[in-house]
Write a structure and sequence with these properties.
The complex is a heterodimer of chains A (312) and B (265). Chain A contains 13 helices and no strands. Chain A is mostly helical and 312 residues long. The longest helix of chain B has 37 residues. Classes of the chains: A mainly alpha (312), B mainly alpha (265).
Chain lengths: 312, 265
């Protein structure tokens, strides 16, 4: 418990630091909400009046704290360009990005576990060498190029889906799933390769230890030793990797969304950057950073449940 | 010592691929078969041939020439990024690991904050504040790469600072800066070298991702990422347009990761 409390405190401090730094960074950009609302040909007097009204000339810390309180309560500010609350713009898109990350994660776990265990069991044989060579190549493919390859083979050649034919989960949930499964594979494949490699080498490393010999001498067969003893220990570094990839997948889906023409969070973020719509950019970046940090915290907690030695 | 090592086939393949890539990059710096901005309307989306080794893009520009230049750009950006990351990371890691104490606590907390922030997001913040372009990409990725190097170097310094050879050097009156950079740092080199190679690969992938999103190197300069992004419209009629830039990224990353594997063992 003490360990979790310490991690929780560290997480909150990190969250505060990041929100502060991002707010500071966007505060330093020339131009503010008043200028955005009135345009560049506004008179200095009307600008000053609006700034007074919006509270833009209060001290920095006061504005930051107010922004933070609003942010935590779900008010992310107003878009410069669309004059809409940022929260409304994001809320309907967030599930797309999150669902994509979660599905990719599940795909990664389900596929990499059996392959990793199989190659570890048969290490040094021809099948292991072939799988590992393939693995090394997949690991080097950037996920957006993987997306292009998947679009080409599965979309254009095999016609399993229509590239660019994204349907929203609000209109057709199964159609939505049938489409996003392809981008999810694009995100997951390089990560599968990474975890197969780590799981394999971690299993092989563990099997050399003394307790494995003891387990064998007690009359256990290979499978029992592997699943009851070796795997439990071999999984620890793999779980660390998975924890880090969950965050990667969230961020990675920003890029993959562009490959598959999916109107998710990534699309809003990129268009807002090109329109210099700072409140939107700021909100999305802080939001993603929050999700990433909270995920890391949860991974730490799970990690400690699996391996109590960590907390020492 | 080195002569006794037997090089694994993987290492040799990695060496050959990396060597070939470096050669192509070098050639690209000196000479390209065609001007990368020259448009030839007769050769729009031409298939690969002896005239145009990798075919032509939608403007009739030679893809091979653009791939050469693009690889050069990627290489320069990745090298600069990793240099910033390594130099700053080594300094931060060496001092925090060697001296410990309050400095260590504070810098490592800062490190954790930057580390927790996904590098592509940091790059997006940079770009939305300072605008797009080569140098902003280098700056953003460079900062994002510091924490991982700092962490690795710090770990090495903590391991070595209490060793006997350090103690005896201290007794012999070696100054602290000399101790850090002349006595301990060389011992951290093997670990550092393989993390530099992995870092370089991550930088290549990050740069390609950013220019794919249109926030990296700006046209008319060539970059592998933006070529991939443009090629997607013509994926059905001209698949080679996407294939070659993508293949080059894969080869660059694959070659170096085969070399890095060897270094890690």
């Amino acid at each position: 418990m003490r360990y979790i409390g310490k991690k929780l405190a560290a997480m909150i401090i990190t969250l505060l630091c990041i929100s502060f730094l991002v707010y500071l960074a966007f505060d330093l950009i020339p131009g503010d909400a008043a200028l955005a609302a009135l345009g560049t040909d506004a008179t200095p007097e009307s600008l000053a009046a609006l700034r007074e009204q919006l509270g833009l000339n209060r001290p920095f810390l006061e504005r930051y704290l107010e922004w933070l309180v609003h942010f935590v309560s779900g008010d992310f500010g107003t878009s410069y360009k669309y004059h809409l609350p940022v929260a409304d713009m994001i809320v309907s898109k967030l599930p797309i990005t999150v669902v994509m990350a979660v599905i990719s994660f599940v795909i990664m776990v389900v596929i990499s576990l059996p392959i990793g265990i199989y190659t570890a069991k048969h290490s040094g044989r021809r099948i292991d060498r072939i799988v590992m060579a393939l693995n090394q190549i997949v690991m080097s493919v950037p996920h957006f190029f993987m997306g292009i390859l998947i679009t080409y083979f599965f979309g254009l050649i095999l016609k399993l889906f229509t590239p660019g034919g994204f349907v929203s989960y609000e209109t057709d949930f199964w159609g939505f799933l049938a489409y996003i499964i392809f981008p999810c594979f694009a995100i997951a494949l390089p990560k599968i390769a990474m975890s197969v490699k780590l799981l394999r080498s971690s299993c092989i490393e563990e099997s050399k230890k003394d307790y494995v010999r003891t387990a064998y001498s007690k009359g256990n067969n290979t499978n029992k030793v592997l699943y009851r003893h070796v795997l439990r220990n071999a999984m620890i570094p793999v779980i660390t990797l998975w924890g880090m990839t969950l965050a990667d997948m969230l961020v990675g889906s920003i890029v993959i969304e562009q490959v598959f023409n999916i109107p998710g969070i990534g699309r809003i973020l990129l268009t807002s950057i090109s329109y210099r719509d700072y409140p939107v950019v700021e909100a999305i970046i802080v939001l993603i950073a929050f999700v990433v940090i909270v995920t890391n915290f949860l991974v730490d907690v799970v990690y400690q449940l699996i391996d109590p030695r960590i907390s020492v | 010592m080195k002569r006794k090592k037997i090089y694994s086939p993987n290492f040799i393949i990695g060496l050959v691929i990396t060597g070939a890539m470096l050669l192509l990059i070098l050639i690209g710096f000196v000479h390209t078969p065609y001007d990368i901005t020259k448009m030839d309307s007769a050769a729009k989306l031409a298939a690969p041939s002896f005239k145009h080794l990798m075919g032509c893009d939608n403007f009739g520009r030679d893809i091979f020439s653009r791939v050469l230049k693009g690889m050069g750009n990627t290489f320069v950006i990745a090298a600069a990024t990793v240099s910033i990351g390594t130099v700053c990371g080594v300094i931060v890691g060496a001092f925090t690991g060697y001296f410990g104490g309050l400095l260590d606590e504070v810098l490592m907390r800062v490190n954790d904050v930057v580390f927790a922030f996904p590098s592509i997001l940091l790059a997006l913040v940079f770009v939305s504040i300072f605008g797009t372009g080569k140098y902003n990409v280098i700056g953003a990725l460079g900062i994002a790469f510091i924490p991982s190097f700092a962490r690795i170097v710090r770990g090495e310094f903590i391991k070595y600072r209490e060793m006997d050879y350090v103690k005896s050097a201290r007794l012999a009156g070696v100054g602290q800066l000399r101790m850090i950079f002349v006595h301990i740092l060389p011992n951290a080199m093997p670990v550092l070298t393989s993390s530099i190679m992995i870092g370089f690969n991550n930088a290549v992938l990050a740069e390609a991702g950013m220019s794919y999103l249109g926030i990296g190197v700006q046209p008319p300069s060539a970059s592998l990422g933006s070529m991939l992004s443009e090629s997607q419209t013509y994926l059905f009629s001209a698949p080679w347009y996407a294939l070659f830039p993508g293949l080059m990224i894969i080869l660059m990353v694959l070659g170096l990761s085969l070399l890095a594997d060897r270094g890690a063992k």
